[in-house]
Amino acid sequence: MQPRHFISLLDISGGEFRNLINRAIDLKNHRDPDYQPLKGQVLAMVFEKSSTRTRISFEAGMAHFGGKAIFLSPRDTQLGRGEPLEDSAKVISSMVDCIMLRTFKHETVTTFAKYSSVPVINGLTDEQHPCQLLADMQTYFEQRGDIQGKTVTWIGDGNNMCHSYIQAAMVLDFKLHIAAPTGYQPDKTIVNAAGKHVQLFDTALTAAKNADLIVTDVWASMGQEDEQKQRCAAFKNYQVNAEIMGAAHADALFMHCLPAHRGEEVSAEVMDGPQSIVFAEAENRLHAQKALLEFLLCAK
Ligand code: CP
Ligand code: NVA
Question: Contact 112/133 with Cβ under 8 angstroms?
């Protein structure tokens, strides 16, 4: 039987998503050091790209649960020397209980999953970042309750985070307004699949109107460093600042997956202001992924 993977938010139902959020909140508020459901279990973590939050949260989460995490980089494994993904997936999954991958191509994770005998978790690809959405949605639920029917506004690049927001809107049933400059719109197939959940706007200000949550991300993602200059020019009217927050509901929240660039995609005033919950959001990576590991590895 194929193991249960977590590669996209479309891999889970709305009910499962809400259960994960509730479980994450419970694990956060009632930490029991004696609860070690993953004792003796091992998570392999393959990072083709840098990470602070994802690496530490998975590693700490496995430690809390009595298990262990192994960090693998292509530089010092045979993955970086061209060993076929299929072979690597078969070998690694024969020795560990779960595999997390952070890669460039989304297909790397889907191929890995096809040949893995244990659950595979997407720790970010160029296309999606579903683990971040578990934490973001936990953070929203903690502060405001269920997000169903609410309006979330995405401002900036139609990137991996934007795509995962689109899929979260489908699974949790909220409205997503997107303002992205021409040439940096989200993938059409992903947008079209979301139907009425997604609406595209020409300006950041019109997209922000009546929002309950405003979200943005860096203008140049990992792997796009060479495009930084041209992207800064293309995105100059897409900064989340006080004017944008002023167009949203008075109690609107601000989120950013981090790392952030104050003065680019977000003003320092908003990033460090009272509506910003970015550090609670970052901490929740730990709790949300503990709930995910439990869901994937301890399911009866
Ligand atoms: N938000 C996020 O995934 O952060 P890292 O790149 O530090 O893991
Ligand atoms: N869009 C960003 C997210 C980082 C967590 C990137 O891919 O670099």
Answer: no
Q: Which residue has the higher pLDDT, 2 or 60?
A: 60
How many C-beta atoms surround the C-beta of residue 201 within 10 A? Answer: 17
Nearest ligand for residue 258 CA: 1
**SS3 for 283?**
helix
Report d(CA 160, CA 126) in Å as an integer. 6
Q: What is the dihedral of CA 50, 51, 56, 59, to 10 degrees?
A: -50
CATH superfamily of 9-129+283-297: Aspartate/ornithine carbamoyltransferase (3.40.50.1370)
**From-to residues of CATH 3.40.50.1370 in the chain:** 9-129+283-297, 132-281
From 23, 163, 197, 285, the catalytic residue: 285
pTM across the whole model: 0.98
Which of 103, 163, 257 maximizes ligand 2 atoms within 8 Å of its Cβ, making it the mutation to test the pocket? 257
Given a contact cutoff of 8 angstroms between Cβ atoms, the answer to whether 254 and 278 are in contact is: yes
Mean pLDDT of 177-186: 98
**What would be the CATH architecture of the domain defined by 132-281?**
3-Layer(aba) Sandwich (3.40)
Residue type, position 120, single letter:
V
Give the list of residues 6+ apart from residue 211 with CB closer than 8 angstroms, or none: 151, 152, 153, 177, 247, 248, 249, 252
42 lines ligand 2 (CB under 6 A): no
User: Active site includes 138?
Assistant: no
For residue range 141-171, list pLDDT tens digits in order: 999 999 999 999 999 999 999 999 999 999 9
Q: Which two tokens stand for residue 219?
A: 């203008």
Q: Is residue 46 a contact partner of residue 99, using CB atoms and an 8 Å limit?
A: yes
- How many degrees, rounded to 5, is the angle at CA 295 between CA 290 and CA 298? 100
Closest CA to 217 of 122, 101, 126, 283: 126
